[in-house]
Design a protein that fits this description.
Blueprint lengths: L7 E12 L2 E12 L3 E5 L6 H9 L6 E5 L4 E4 L11 H5 L8 H10 L15 H14 L4 E5 L7 H18 L2 E5 L3 H7 L2 E6 L2 E7 L11 H13 L9
Parallel strand pairs: 3-7, 3-8, 5-6, 6-7
Antiparallel strand pairs: 1-2, 1-4, 8-9
Bound molecules: adenosine-5'-triphosphate (ATP).
């Protein structure tokens, strides 16, 4: 489908959110097309999670319009599994019994084909986060909201889980909003990266790189440098 005919997945108009006297989101406009992958960077406390929570329907804005698809789901920094339920029951939680087959196939897709009867306490951090991804997949979201889902993982597991998310998104094509502190992660995964600063979306920039991205590609390095500068972080010489 060409860009012009891709229907919108998200439309925000004049989205404003205040906490007390502080305006965290200041009349934000944002359009996301179906299947588009946006990463949202920003200094700590700028309202990235608040924006994601509004998209998820967990927070109500003070004013503005929010158009989001009905089928949307969030993966958080922690997997948020129910410890008293086995893995498959966690994956299909809140779904009809008929979702069991989809649950098993989602577990296979995240590389845990034999985990259905395991208990959450027996999972590593990376495995638990993959179960959370399987739980999201079963819901066939049109909009997948990712709130720093890799932040609690060790460096190697983080890279592997990023690759997994990249593959899953390529296969299932939900629209994605990924909130992250990590510039490299944003440039590695997203089609478009925006920076939230002082309540506004700055530097909303498409990433014109091939699907599988090489961190040593000079264009990758240039994007990285650009977003670090947007965040006010000078990049180290030669990095
Ligand atoms: N329920 C709340 N009540 C009062 N203030 C809040 C509430 N939720 C968030 N805030 C404030 O709104 C601002 C934005 O918070 P938010 O968590 O959205 O930022 P963030 O960009 O996601 O931060 P971080 O990168 O550190 O996770 C912060 O100053 C925070 O203290």
């Amino acid at each position: 489908m060409t860009d012009a005919v891709r229907p919108p997945a998200v439309q925000l108009r004049g989205l404003t959110k205040r906490f007390g006297t502080k305006t965290v989101l200041d009349a934000i406009d944002l359009d996301l097309k179906a299947g588009e992958f946006l990463a949202l960077l920003g200094p700590s406390g700028t309202g990235k999670t608040t924006l994601l929570r509004i998209l998820a329907g967990l927070e109500v804005p003070d004013s503005g319009e929010v158009l989001v698809p009905e089928r949307r789901t969030t993966v958080f920094q922690e997997p948020r599994l129910v410890s008293a339920r086995r893995v498959l029951a966690n994956v299909t939680i809140g779904q009809p019994r008929s979702a069991e087959e989809a649950g098993r196939s989602a577990l296979a897709e995240v590389g845990l084909p034999d985990a259905a009867r395991r208990w959450p306490v027996t999972l590593s951090g990376g495995e638990a986060q993959r179960v959370a991804l399987a739980r999201a997949l079963v819901r066939r979201p049109q909009l997948l909201l990712l709130d720093e889902p890799f932040a609690a993982l060790d460096a190697l597991t983080r890279l592997q889980t990023q690759d997994l998310v990249g593959d899953l998104v390529t296969r299932h094509r939900p629209a994605v909003v990924l909130v992250t502190h990590d510039v490299e992660e944003a440039v590695r995964l997203a089609e478009r990266v925006a920076v939230l600063r002082d309540g506004k979306l700055a530097a909303d920039q498409p990433i014109d790189l091939p699907g599988s991205r090489d961190r040593t590609d000079p264009r990758f390095v240039e994007y990285r440098r650009f977003f670090l500068a947007e965040l006010g972080i000078p990049s180290l010489k030669g990095v």
